[in-house]
Model the fold of this input.
Amino acid sequence: MKEKFKNAKGITLIALVITIIVLLILAGVTIATLTGDNGILTRASDAKEQTEIGDEKEKVELSAVGALAKDNGGEIKRNYLNEELTSYIGTEGTDYTLSGSAPFIVTYSDSGRSYLIDENGNVSEYVDISKYVGVGDYVDYNPTVSNKNGTSVEASKLTYTSPTGSGTEHGNGYTSTEEDEGQTFTATADTKWRVLDIENGTVTLISENLITTDAGENFIMSGAIGYLYAERELNEICKIYGYGYGADTSQVTEYSYGGPTDGELTGEITGSGARSITIEDINKEAGITEDDYTTLDGNYGNTTNPTVNVYYPTITTSNGKSSSAGVKNLEYTYYYYNKTKIENPNVQNMLFNGNYWLASRCVNTGSSYSDFNVRYVNDFTVGTYADNVCRGYSPDLIGGPSSNYAVRPIVILKSNVIDTSSSTEYNGETMWNLK
Done:
């Protein structure tokens, strides 16, 4: 009997241990089923969050449609958008906040989620890219492919030849035996791109290296024609970099052209997400506004020089020169500063690493002459400078020495196109991939 009892007791303890183990396993499985990454509670929470996002986004979309309707389908204006958001969401400042200018960002106060409204009224969930991407980071942008599958951009879009031109037609004004057929640039996948600026979710890239012609030469602009069409030619060159996947091809690049008596002439380049860098881009990074120009150069805005009539560039003649002297008291619009105006060392290093043109023009004057200049970054003085591609005197307008510097494109990316969860490394720095 004792042996039977002992055997029965032993079997009972083993069964109890096994039962407990099984229960623990079942409990673990149950807990995992409820709370794991793919658990019931997690899925329920995700579903609830996605429902909330859908509801929030729908209200913003309805507001955007209403704002467009109030402007007869023209554009989304802040006051109209705010009226619509108030009717769908609540009170601005309490229930939501709205950015001051387009593209508009709507942020819900309770959830903290934000939504971006583009110029066409399209709405997407907004991610504050600046929390992940930093100035100076690399981005894996390739101007030669149009989509994630690697489809090539049309070859005709990737090349531009700047002609010598004439006063009545655009060009760079430079002639030589080698350059009579123009100076040709071709976009390649070799160029590396770095983040220059991040604002309201919009990321602006700048080429790491300076761009030269296919022959490896700097871009030359000279004389009256070079001055008249400098901004156009530089932007035409740089636009070839703006057709790649991720580039915001809805961008419109405006430029000025012509001489002092030709009136306010402007042109535009559309369909590309790239353009030439300008003095305004560098001013932005340096925190310089128009109020600072007279501080940088006391002559800024001065119209007392030259005191004699001078010859000037004009689009009314084939050689770009006026037929007689006829302009004096031209406004002085030149100013200069060095890289120390920019506090961020990453931006300093990116911007001041060689001599390159800026798609910006200016005028400086003396008592008997007027210089018609194109701005550029000067690596020797490590600052912004300007070169007189032509100079007007009372007897004639002469071309300055043919100026030759590199070109520097910048690319504006579409909103939310950078994949903040995917990056690699390049030269010891972060390189972000595109979604």
